[in-house]
Design a protein that fits this description.
The complex is a heterodimer of chains A (about 150) and B (about 650). Helices cover about 45% and strands about 10% of the residues of chain A. Chain A is built from 7 helices and 4 strands, in the order H-H-H-H-E-H-H-E-E-E-H. The longest helix of chain A is centred in the first third of the chain and has 12 residues. In chain A, about 40% of the residues are buried. Chain B has about 650 residues and is α/β, with parallel strands linked by helices. The chains are: A alpha+beta (about 150), B alpha/beta (about 650).
Amino acid sequence: MDKERIDQIIDKHHGEASSLIQILLEIQAENHWLPKEALERVGERLQVPMTRIQHIATFYKAFSLVPKGRHQIHVCMGTACHVRGASRVLDTVQGVTGIKPGETDLDLKFSLETVNCLGCCALGPVVEIDGKTHGKMAPAQAAGVLKNYD
Amino acid sequence: MSRINSPAELEAFRSNLLSERDPNKTCITLCSGSACHASRSREVAASIQEEIRKQGLDGEVELRRTGCHGFCERGPIIVIRPEEICYFQIKPEDVPEIISETIKEKKIIERLLYTDPATKEKIIHESEIPFYKNQGRLVFGSNVQIDPKSIDDYLALGGYSGLAKALSQMTPEQVLEEVTKSNLRGRGGGGFPTGRKWAESRNAPGDTKYVIVNADEGDPGAYMDRSLLEGNPHSVLEGLIIGAYAIGSHEGYIYVRQEYPLAVENVNIAIRQAEEYGFLGKNILSSGFDFTIIVHKGAGAFVCGESSALMTALEGKAGEPRPKYIHTAVKGVWDRPSVLNNVETWANVPLIINKGAEWFTQHGTEKSKGTKIFSLVGKIANTGLVEVPMGVTLRDIIFQIGGGIPGGKRFKAVQTGGPSGGCLPEELLDLEVGFDELTKAGSMMGSGGMIIMDEDTCMVDVARYFLNFLTDESCGKCVPCREGIRQMLKTLTNITQGKGKEGDIELLQQLAEVAGEASLCALGRSAPNPFLSTLKYFRDEYEAHIKEKRCPALSCKELISYYIDPDKCKACTICGRKCPSEAIVGGKSQIHVVDQEKCTKCGTCFEVCPTKYGAVTKISGEPVPPPIPEEARTIVKKSKEK
């Protein structure tokens, strides 16, 4: 992500230190992760020490300090999905992709995350891939859905 | 649009708006909440627009994309007004027929109607469907009629009249008194009296005060705040402005999770429109009162739902709670008096001001007034959002509105209050819902999540699930929470894996006591609840796991085995083909056997085995019978035996 774009985002928030989280969220949304150079630029412009930026970037779930894969898999582990067998779906997704929640595979194909509720409990268990919701998942179906991505 | 400058101008604008709207014009309302988007609601909308054009009905039929209707189980839902014809589970393919048959010919399409599961009767009107009929929707009801992106829709239903009344006919003290008299209690979990909180802030020293909407809805399985903010954002804004007026605040925040993009979008549009119309900004409705709102997106941390943590996050820091010897109502954001209320609480305020505290207190129980929106999810026939007056029994919510447990299974427990709440068993189904009643039973109201569990749900695993969630979400600031709940999780995980030992329950109880007493904030203090409530009502399940290494619900993976009953297996080969780990031995005319070494216990064979055979079973607490010898596996058809 280039410096000019980061500066634009910072300027949009008037360079205020209290907008730190909002600025990082925008960088995360555009770039899908927070590179070290971007964090340094934000720290420099907002006059915020790197330790505080690191604290925030590791405290909140929305941020990633490593690059993400081409396809983002979110397995919903909300209570409604849990009682309908989400953990068995997660096991299968881990088996097929070879990665655990929080990880990205070496080919940068998939990133896997668990989320605590996607709020479409009627469709549970739910797996969301690149923003598309796949509802009423059973382990075998989840494996089938993943085959369609390359 | 020019600014509205006085209550009189607002009323004139409203009557003009209503006179331009023909109540007999056909209007198709389509549920476009997040949950319905997941079921292709956007495609349905595009298809409706296209068909209206194609069939030459431009200008005659209006499509209104509303927020969540609540009956998520049957989404996407359309309601055709003024006839109020209600169709469910609409697919884009159904649309041409709906337009040509129902809209043009006024004919009902039977297959899209709701069928009462008990009487098998088809129901046409929304208001006659049991799911809706048995609710009392004061707050959530407008969702089905409003396009959340249109302030005019909100105004047409009388919107902002509460604000006009407060600003022109009432002093801030009178507004405060009305809210206090209404006995409105916080809908976010604690149930703290809203009026008292407001008064504390109003009386606190300092000129700069803040009002904040808590839309950091983090309880898994709860999404009513999202649906309200997405579907009727102006009702929340109106409540917030009225509250600010009562307290003497000129700046408000909406703290909303970034995981709710549609809510963020709709609330931002609503703020822009309210500014244009003059309900926000300087000198609102010529009252001399100024107020602005800033939206802050939460970056994902469950603990930020706690008031002091949320306020720290608003300051641009990591959202860790602080001790609250001094309430946040006195020292909150930037150490200034700050009133934080939940989305649903704010949305109740315009109703109270409009209709009066006396009207409001007619609903509910003695100590819990008004209604509450619950998100009814899990093993329930009608998943969705339900709003009922306080005092309705759990049984009525689950069986009358929710339609009971699907698949002929037996009800086991209802979990309320999110990770801080507890599980209530069948014996307590006649409990009336209210803040104090639920707390007394060992659970809590929380923000309104209601997760239904059936006989297949293991209660030890449910406790483990919530402790796992809380371990992950603990901010780590204080030791009792950070270390205590982690040790609880470790012990509970051991129990669910068959490694539990004598004394584990007592150890858990000790840990629960310390975490409950000594943690800094409500997250840690309430963290033991899922364990304590399941132990209280389902102790036998804990003992079966520890003593017999048996999971009575046949759910804990490490304690169960899958076994194919050789007498029932008809060698249909379905399970063998579906098994992802090739753990099923057997082919055509060969009785199938599970290779226990290879089996990953994913449960696929159990799910795919045709119910007429029911050959795959789960075994727990006893050894798996040895596989039948290979020579005995061939199935010989009876006709060939002769």
